[in-house]
């Protein structure tokens, strides 16, 4: 029972340094968030010790009476949160959820239709080196010149290739998808509709985004992005798909579920049903809108900065640097230098290689969780706009970032 700091000072030091990094910088990676302490407490609990292959009430191991309780609570809360008939809380990650979902809906060799990775799609939607691209016949749709998903192309490709599954979802897209139109097209070609809401699930839970559960056959998500829970995956569906999805997750792809993570998911679903959570998601979306406004203002444009699709409806903006003297890598480094963490991101038809890119993806969920208000987001947006100009003052920008971080302390009780 030796504490971590005594048993393994090397690992403890890196964990402490990461805590300090999260506290002292502004986290604006769109797929990240800060889990509440109660979520981390559940995740760090004795449930990590328990084997529980199977599902609540139908396990292949003894002694599952308590993890049955936590897993059933997670399932019930999740179904309630999104109005779903079926939920599976066992996928270890978003990619695992997607793998299980895809293999439940289609056979290797079948055709799938998804958003091109280079236009904002995810690896698991058909990228060549991913299981989805290796085992399925992939057809990709794209965004148009205005940066919006080209629904006419989706319809044309669906009619031409008759996919088994149409995938609606994204990792880097600043607008809402037209689920009703995806459903209409899927019905027309007799395809299944799978929505991957990993990025925007928190907005859906808060009622700030259309709910894909109303349209799709299957919906997958992560639990750690806008949803703000532990790192993990989930699957929702109409009840007709229950048997196939359950057996695709276990024994199809996974063995023992991570019951400590499932308990933490349950806690995060409780949080996601609260008024506080809704208010936080409202600040998340408002913060992104402020960022988009500031980064399309005259002085930003003069520095060659622009925003894809001209704005945002969600928790992120995609900065277009094709006219800037900075590439994506340089812009990411420059923001890192002043204490803001973002990731570089390819823009559609990017002239630069994927490791460099001509864009940035900037998200607001983590700062909204920290308590940032519209006023704070305006200050952050101004700091970013200044940092992307040809001439900027590192020291003063660092001071402004530090003031914002100090104003909204993160995990104040955790420092040793
Ligand atoms: N789906 C989408 C749309 C994502 O953006 C991501 C993560 O970036 C995933 C799935 C995969 O999630 P994970 O990293 O938990 O496997």
Automatic annotation (TrEMBL):
Gene3D superfamilies in the record, alphabetically?
A: Aspartate Aminotransferase, domain 1, Type I PLP-dependent aspartate aminotransferase-like (Major domain)
Q: Name one GO molecular function term.
A: methyltransferase activity
Q: Give the subcellular location.
A: Cytoplasm
Write down the position(s) of the site called Plays an important role in substrate specificity: 224
Kindly list the positions annotated as binding (6S)-5,6,7,8-tetrahydrofolate: 117, 121-123
A GO cellular component entry from the record: cytosol
Q: Known EC number(s)? A: 2.1.2.1
Write out the catalysed reaction: (6R)-5,10-methylene-5,6,7,8-tetrahydrofolate + glycine + H2O = (6S)-5,6,7,8-tetrahydrofolate + L-serine
Keyword Transferase found: yes
Q: In which pathway does it act?
A: One-carbon metabolism; tetrahydrofolate interconversion; Amino-acid biosynthesis; glycine biosynthesis; glycine from L-serine: step 1/1
**May I ask which residue range the UniProt record assigns to the signal sequence?**
none
A GO BP annotation: tetrahydrofolate interconversion
One Pfam match, by short name? Answer: SHMT
Q: Which domain of life is it from?
A: Bacteria
This protein's assembly is summarised as:
Homodimer.
- Which family does the record assign? Belongs to the SHMT family.
Role: Catalyzes the reversible interconversion of serine and glycine with tetrahydrofolate (THF) serving as the one-carbon carrier. This reaction serves as the major source of one-carbon groups required for the biosynthesis of purines, thymidylate, methionine, and other important biomolecules. Also exhibits THF-independent aldolase activity toward beta-hydroxyamino acids, producing glycine and aldehydes, via a retro-aldol mechanism. Thus, is able to catalyze the cleavage of L-allo-threonine.
Q: What is this protein called?
A: Serine hydroxymethyltransferase
Organism equals: Streptomyces lincolnensis
